[in-house]
Amino acid sequence: PTGGLARTLLDRADKLIRRVGGRPDPMARSFAAQLEAFVACARGRVPPSPDAGDGIAVVRAVEAARRSLEA
């Protein structure tokens, strides 16, 4: 995103990462790391993880388990 609402939200997320990322609280650091990964993906720096292929694999595994239980 280059402007508008998306840019504003990503900039605010960057500020939040800086604010909570340096705290000693493990939950705050974990949240900051997750938010950092999301922002990097939203800005196009890294591909999403998990991606759509991972989601499809999970659905297939769940469906296979369900069919196995029904057999």
Indicate the overall shape: elongated
Major beta sheet, specifics? none
Low-confidence stretches: none
SSE order: HHH
Number of strands: 0
Describe it for me?
The chain is an all-alpha fold and 71 residues long. It has helices spanning 4-21, 26-42, 52-70. Helix 1 packs antiparallel against helix 2. The longest helix has 19 residues, at 52-70.
Question: Tags for this entry?
Answer:
3 helices, 76% helix, mainly alpha, 71 residues
Summarize the entry for a quick read.
By secondary structure, this protein is mainly alpha-helical. It is 76% helix and 0% strand.
SSE blueprint and pairings:
Elements: H1 4-21, H2 26-42, H3 52-70
Helix pairs in contact: 1-2
